[in-house]
Specification:
Number of domains of chain A: 1
Oligomer: heterodimer
Number of helices of chain A: 13
Helix content of chain B: over 70%
Shape of chain B: globular
Distance between the termini of chain B: 37 Å
Largest sheet of chain B: none
Radius of gyration of chain A: 19 Å
Order of helices and strands of chain B: HHHHHHHHHHHHH
Strand content of chain B: under 5%
Shape of chain A: globular
Number of strands of chain B: 0
Order of helices and strands of chain A: HHHHHHHHHHHHH
Structural class of chain B: mainly alpha
Structural class of chain A: mainly alpha
């Protein structure tokens, strides 16, 4: 726990020291404006909840891709990975503390998006508070788990930079963060079903609708399960990385 | 003549940068998939709204926006020169830094224009977008105009932020989404209040995109030509501003030491 908190503290210092790491908090309100403008122009203010949810996912996914995903790689570039590995505290706990902090801070985008919607004169109402809170927690946990997977895989992958720069919109489409997966072609839907964003986005939109939510628990279970899969992949990859660099003696040179 | 040599070597150097960033495989399976997904993401909003006109509007706007977005990435260039430690050499040389910067980033614009056209050519038919022949061919030079215009704008911004490397990515990302909101990419600029419409028209992309929409919709040539004139005016305005101010920003940075030593 102490290692986790230490990771959280250092991450807060990083985030406040580098304005670039706060990009999603500047772009989330702008994306909200773009989506709200489209819906207002089309006379479809009933879709305001869609416009308020999508920028939050964009912000969280951005943080996972460009911030959390690069946690271990940046430790390597800074030359601090060796000290982190040599320290008696858990390597994984420190990394998870950093990633969880980044993900938690991403919730600021919820308030931004909803504030912009209110300023547009189309406030968003939460109709199912319990389901909403549970979905938000499950989404944050899944995002952090997925980010741990990315952080570990980015160290192993040769084209991690290209992946980071390219893996935004494909996942926004597959995850149905703005346009529900049900409107995608049939052949895409199996792919969407293994992206936790699709389950999470459907649930969050449902909590903003007065109609009862169908199949809440199975959907929530899928969010947690897919997030856990990302986390498990991350843990295995982390172990592989540490064993590999210790055995080859190239911890500081890889 | 010496300026032409500087331009040529800058273009060659930029092209080498490009091939070190992408392989054909990573470009196709990384970048191109992102471009196609980005255009699809916005075109799908039209499906959500259940109107074909909206789908076409969003598809064309966001495909052309890829040219503007790619050109805005050129903002990274001065800071990458700083990161590589080559900015001080460039400043010490007798050639004008703005000429080198403009020429060195041409590959970014060429890539952006090509990506935008591919996005339109791939996603357009998938959503049933009509390409009237042969006038649709005009979309190619018009997209190039949009890319160049956005590049002039981003070169001006690059000068403004050259001494502030720590906010470089922030400026790039907010500029891109800001242009998406303002330049008639997702809603017509006529939907805005008058004062905001005037601002939008002074920005790159707006008029060029309108011209492209006009070409595809079969608008009279006079209307298309007026939009092309507007985009040319915006491009030359931003280019002039970049040429006038870039040197000043550099000199200011040299005076206070912020160019090489600021974070």
């Amino acid at each position: 726990m102490r290692a986790f908190l230490a990771g959280a503290r250092i991450q807060i210092r990083f985030l406040t020291a580098y304005p670039d790491s706060l990009i999603p908090f500047f772009t989330a309100p702008l994306f909200t404006i773009v989506f709200l403008l489209v819906f207002k122009h089309a006379g479809r203010q009933d879709l305001t909840p869609y416009a308020a949810i999508a920028p939050v996912f964009i912000a969280l996914w951005w943080l996972a891709l460009f911030n959390s995903g690069w946690t271990i790689t940046i430790e390597r570039w800074n030359g601090t990975l060796e000290m982190l590995v040599a320290a008696p505290s858990s390597f994984g706990a420190v990394i998870f503390g950093r990633i969880a902090t980044t993900t938690a801070i991403g919730t600021v985008s919820f308030f931004e998006a909803w504030l912009v919607a209110r300023l547009f004169g189309t406030p968003v109402t939460i109709h199912h508070w319990g389901a909403f809170v549970l979905t938000v927690f499950a989404t944050l946990a899944a995002m952090a788990g997925t980010a741990v997977g990315m952080a570990a895989l980015f160290v192993l992958a040769r084209n991690a930079v290209t992946f980071s720069n390219s893996a935004s919109y494909p996942f926004y489409v597959l995850g149905g963060i703005l346009v529900p997966v049900s409107l995608l072609p049939h052949w895409v839907r199996p792919l969407s079903s293994v992206v936790f964003l699709s389950w999470s986005a459907d649930l969050l939109r449902a909590t903003l609708d007065a109609a009862p939510i169908h199949d809440f628990w199975p959907h929530l279970g899928m969010v947690v399960l897919l997030g856990a899969c990302g986390y498990a992949v991350g843990l295995v990859a982390l172990r592989v990385i540490l064993v590999r660099v210790r055995e080859s003696g190239e911890l500081s040179t890889t | 003549m010496s300026t032409l040599r500087v331009v040529w070597y800058s273009v060659v150097s930029g092209a080498n940068d490009y091939w070190s960033i992408f392989t054909l495989k990573s470009w196709v399976f990384g970048w191109l998939i992102r471009v196609v997904s980005q255009v699809t993401f916005f075109a799908l909003i039209g499906k959500l709204l259940r109107t074909e006109a909206q789908t076409d509007f969003l598809l064309v706007g966001n495909a052309v926006m890829v040219a503007g977005m790619g050109a805005t990435f050129a903002l990274h260039q001065p800071t990458s020169e700083r990161g590589n430690g080559t900015l001080s050499l460039l400043l010490a040389s007798p050639s004008r830094p703005v000429v080198v910067m403009l020429a060195r980033g041409l590959y970014v614009v060429a890539d952006a224009i090509w990506s935008a056209l591919l996005g339109l050519a791939i996603v357009g038919p998938a959503f049933g977008l009509d390409f009237p022949w042969p006038r649709a061919l005009l979309v190619i030079p018009l997209t190039a105009l949009v890319g160049v215009s956005a590049y002039c704008f981003s070169t001006f911004l690059a000068g403004v932020i050259i001494a502030h490397r720590n906010i470089n990515n922030l400026v790039v990302n907010t500029t891109i989404v800001g242009l998406m909101a303002l330049c008639g990419v997702n809603v017509p600029v006529s939907f805005f209040p008058d004062w905001l419409e005037r601002i939008a028209e002074s920005l790159p992309i707006t008029d060029g995109l309108e011209a492209i929409r006009g070409v595809l919709a079969g608008d009279p040539w006079s209307s298309v030509a007026a939009d092309v004139g507007g985009e040319l005016l915006a491009a030359s305005g931003w280019l002039a501003l970049a040429l006038l101010t870039f040197g000043r920003f550099i000199r200011a940075g040299q005076r206070d030491g912020s160019l090489e030593f600021a974070s």
